[in-house]
Amino acid sequence: MLRLPARRAARPAALLLSLGLLVPTLAACGSDDGDAAAGGGAGLDSIEVTGEVGEGIEVAYDGTVAVDETVSEVLVEGEGDPLEAGENALAHIYVGNGETEEQALTTYEGDQPQLVPVAAEGFITSISDSLEDVPVGSRVLIAAPPAEAFGPQGNPQIDIGTADTVVFVVDVVDSVLTAPEGEQVEPRGQVPTLVTGEGTDVTALEFPRGLEATGDLETTTLIEGEGPEVTAESTVVVDYLGQVLGKDAPFDESYSRTPTALPVAQFVQGWQQALPGVTVGSRVVLEVPPALGYGAQGNPQAGIGGKDTMFFVVDVLGATNTK
């Protein structure tokens, strides 16, 4: 997969993917009563969670936590719409080791909320299933036995052993659209034609004869969303497709996978300049000159030369830190 973000050192929150947090688990049989403590350990009642939802999570333990099935409890009930099975949510996640009573990971370090599918495969089932019908703005406390968290192997990279109960605290920051929605806008000037597949998914761009690079960063709105505006401090959830001007096939896209969630500040310069001010729900076409893309070196692995102009279609499906 071609990474759009500009290169920078990885931060703890950015390691969620590489540490296996999104690896599907083998099974999950959850309850919401918090009374599934295993012998020798305590349940959810021994965990105290403080901090404002969306601002930070502090966890204190009153003894070892050990459960024999996944249990969850809504600590703070938000005022937003309940999450439905099959949709995505943006959430901050705390991961703790119930045996050692230590924090293993938190996405609040680096302010990088994660995209979480609700009651769907592709994520930790004990988290995903616990979010169904939970309102946006809520905080959910979860304890899961090892096999229902990271699988029987645990997660040694974050010091979760094969016998360690895993504690999750999930702050549901926002829900995420499944497709752009808003008012259709007639583009001004020439823009590539979007080749679409199923629904609104884009499969390629067709460049009209005579379309030439302007040499500037250009943003063309095709659908103007009615959501809040993205800021330079936002984490955004986007579907996208990128294609070099004059070429017949895209070099990267997310429509056939899952949307991408990253801070605006981690994208290439063209995206960093173009996305602030775009409203959630919008679909935009970006023309990104080489200097605001991958520079004179290009990206040979993706077939992008140092003088190539890139075009992107970007669907803004969600964002945090908006205005």
UniProtKB/TrEMBL annotation:
InterPro entries linked to this entry: FKBP-type_PPIase, PPIase_dom_sf, PPIase_FKBP_dom
Q: Which keywords belong to this entry?
A: Isomerase, Rotamase, Signal
Catalyzed reaction equations: [protein]-peptidylproline (omega=180) = [protein]-peptidylproline (omega=0)
Any idea where the PPIase FKBP-type domain is?
54-176, 233-320
* Keyword field contains Zinc: no
Give the main EC class: isomerase
Molecular functions (GO terms): peptidyl-prolyl cis-trans isomerase activity
EC number of this enzyme: 5.2.1.8
Q: Which residues form the signal peptide?
A: 1-27
**Pfam families, sorted:** FKBP_C (PF00254)
SUPFAM superfamilies for this protein: FKBP-like
Q: Which PANTHER family match?
A: FK506-BINDING PROTEIN 59-RELATED, PEPTIDYL-PROLYL CIS-TRANS ISOMERASE
Query: What is the protein name stated in its UniProt record?
Result: peptidylprolyl isomerase
Species this protein is from: Nocardioides perillae
